[in-house]
Design goal:
The chain is an alpha/beta fold. It is built from 20 helices and 25 strands. It is elongated, with a radius of gyration of 34 Å.
């Protein structure tokens, strides 16, 4: 069995979620706090009470009242054998099963009915059912909407509306079940699998408990109990309260499986060397206690093993999850709520990797951890958002998530860098990635509030002479920031000027659809050519025995400024145009600082942008913030504009 879709109506944060599609394998559910994750997990587990949605849609005035019940529609796909198990209580003495369906229209011929039936059976991969669950306790199986449902395949008696037409009209009826052809009815032997094709009702009462018994939900907050009354049962109760008892049964009856179970536990939780159980005999009833070992069990030091209650929540959850995954003979639906809240990131990743080795089960994992999402390689992702007093759901397929990873590789970032952010401001390189947030906070006085500053991978691709290449590169960032996507939107790109021609700058801005900004100077380091800052950073680093003075730095800069001017004049520039401001704007400041370090401190002490530029920024922000005011104003403009547009 697996859940193929769900629709939540009038329940908690959901007014109407619309149909949310799921797949076999691992399904990730993510979203911010109060976005509806818990409500959706409750709906998937079919464990929900009446909790109507409250907003202006359901309560438009103070005098309004809510009369509708909370409702959940669930689409499930089950195998043929599972259907027979669900209907086992209706098994007849001759080995057939009762499966009653709504009566077809009286005008339909039996031939047309069977022709349509065989057409459906030849294309179906599984039996599809819709469960319509209401919080008032009414459980309905909506068969009429399920054209792919296996239907009754023989007529046991005359049916109303079909007088004079008996089962003798059929010779042999066959249906394809799981790719093989099975004989359902044979006229010669008069054998049939199903009866009562044209009855009018079908009860879900016998199917729903079977479905619910195969759904396990592991809460982030619930601590699993390590004691339970003794019995000889291997089936874990959905709330995992009998975990100690089933593990005791596994240990005594199936030692090989028990060893496999211990090995899986040690993979996820290496500090646990093994588990065991012991029987506690008392007057009222015998109990089984689960014991955790942190030393080698071969030492036979049972006195050093401790009960499960002495462990954190994560240990019990891991044991219960691994037990269901390993021991369950039939497919199970396993819901894991926020595993990162009780598991170390390494343990969570290893648990996810183990789940992937048991693909017969379907998993629903609610998380906001990018490392868990990346490890899961999910078959589907559902992103929940809460806006306008209502939870909404966005489904992302496996193909979409794979495409996102590919695009992220192209721009040189990881999912963990960007997942869960409100938006991204892309900048020239790692130096700006570290310095711009400091300028925003200390000078612009604008908090990031969900905005992440990230370096682009290769800014040269933006202005590639190959226009197709540069367009593709912009398209990549555009698709990464497409609003309703796995990743947050880009609010802008800030690149170095690099003395580009004015026309080149305008062309690039046009291709970026107005999101591309350039520094007014050649590069970020041009704003860091502050003699006092350079002196302070160099002396703090103890790059030479005697500290340098501000006047030494000023003289060195003046000398190189003159050499730069002489070089420009020799190339035909007009001397009157080569002002100090023009020099500060166009000089290659990174090369200048590298030359300064080499002259003062020797070739062994190179200028490192990601170290020294950051230190220069920190000094300037603290002591001469006006030197970086131009950048602060640009950053403030981009951030505030994005917030105005989003509101």
């Amino acid at each position: 069995m697996h859940i193929s879709k769900i629709r939540v109506q009038n329940y908690k944060a959901f007014y109407d979620s619309g149909w949310i599609e799921f797949k076999p394998g691992i399904n990730i559910i993510s979203g911010q706090n109060h976005s509806g994750k818990t409500a959706l997990l409750e709906a998937i587990s079919t464990d929900f009470l009446d909790f109507p949605h409250k907003s202006l849609k359901t309560l438009p005035t103070l005098l309004s009242s809510i009369t509708a019940y909370s409702k959940v529609d669930i689409g499930i796909v089950i195998s043929f054998d599972e259907l027979l198990n669900y209907l086992s209580q209706d098994k007849q003495s001759d080995g057939s099963y009762i499966l009653t369906l709504p009566r077809p229209a009286p005008t339909a011929s039996l031939d047309s009915i069977m022709l349509e039936l065989n057409k459906k059976l030849s294309s179906v991969e599984g039996i599809k059912l819709d469960l319509n669950l209401c919080s008032d306790g009414i459980d309905i199986l909506d068969i009429q909407k399920n054209l792919h449902l296996f239907t009754a395949l023989s007529i046991n008696s005359y049916a109303p509306g079909y007088q004079g037409k008996s089962r003798e009209v059929f010779d042999v009826i066959q249906a394809r079940i799981d790719g093989t052809t099975a004989k359902i009815y044979d006229k010669k032997s008069s054998t049939s699998l199903f009866k009562n094709i044209f009855a009018t009702e079908f009860s879900i009462v016998k199917i729903l408990p079977s479905v619910q018994s195969k759904i396990y939900r592991f809460y982030a907050q619930r601590k699993i109990i390590g004691k339970y009354q003794f019995s000889n049962n291997l089936e874990l109760i959905p709330d995992a309260s009998n975990l100690a008892q089933v593990i005791h049964c596994l240990q005594s009856r199936f030692p090989n499986k028990f060893n496999q179970f211990n090995n899986l536990i040690s993979i996820v939780l290496p500090h646990i060397t093994g588990i065991s159980t012991r029987l506690i005999i008392n007057d009222e009833q015998n109990e089984v206690e689960l014991r955790i070992w942190s030393i080698d069990p071969a030492t036979d030091r049972d006195d050093l093993a401790f009960p499960l209650e002495a462990c954190g929540t994560g240990v019990g959850q891991v044991l219960a999850i691994l037990y269901v995954v390993l021991i369950s003979q039939e497919p199970r639906t396993i819901i894991i709520d926020e595993p990162q809240s009780y598991l170390h990131p390494g343990a969570a990743r290893k648990l996810i990797e183990i789940l992937q080795d048991f693909p017969q089960h379907q998993y629903f994992i609610s998380t906001h951890s990018p490392s868990i999402i990346a490890a899961a390689n999910p078959s589907s992702m559902t992103l929940l958002k809460y806006q306008d007093s209502e939870a909404t759901a966005l489904s992302i397929s496996a193909d979409d998530t794979e495409e996102m990873r590919s695009l992220l590789d192209d721009v040189g970032v990881h999912l963990s860098d960007v997942f869960g952010l409100d938006n991204i401001l892309w900048v020239e390189g790692p130096t700006e990635e570290r310095c711009f947030p400091l300028i925003l906070k200390q000078i612009a006085k604008v908090p990031l509030q969900g905005t992440q500053v990230l370096a682009v991978k290769n800014t040269g691709d933006f202005e590639s002479k190959n226009k197709v290449k540069s367009k593709i590169y912009f398209d990549i960032y555009d698709r990464l920031s497409g609003g309703e996507a796995l990743l947050p939107p880009a609010i802008g790109f800030i690149l170095d000027n690099e003395n580009r021609a004015e026309q080149n700058i305008e062309d690039l801005k046009k291709r970026s659809k107005g999101k591309l900004y350039f520094l007014d100077r050649c590069m970020y380091e041009n704003y860091l050519l502050v003699p006092e800052a350079i002196t302070a950073v160099c002396n703090h680093s103890n790059l030479r025995a005697e500290p340098i003075s501000v006047s030494e730095v000023e003289q060195w800069i003046a000398k190189n400024k003159q050499q730069w001017t002489d070089q420009k004049i020799s190339k035909g520039a007009k001397k009157e145009d080569l002002t100090d401001d023009y020099w500060l704007k166009t000089v290659h400041a990174a090369n200048l600082l590298s030359a300064l370090f080499k002259d003062f401190f020797g070739s062994d002490n190179n200028y490192k942008k990601t170290t020294h530029s950051v230190e220069l920024t920190e000094w300037i922000v603290e002591n001469k913030p006006e030197e970086l005011q131009e950048i602060a104003d640009l950053l403030r403009q981009i951030i505030l504009r994005s917030r105005e547009s989003s509101s």
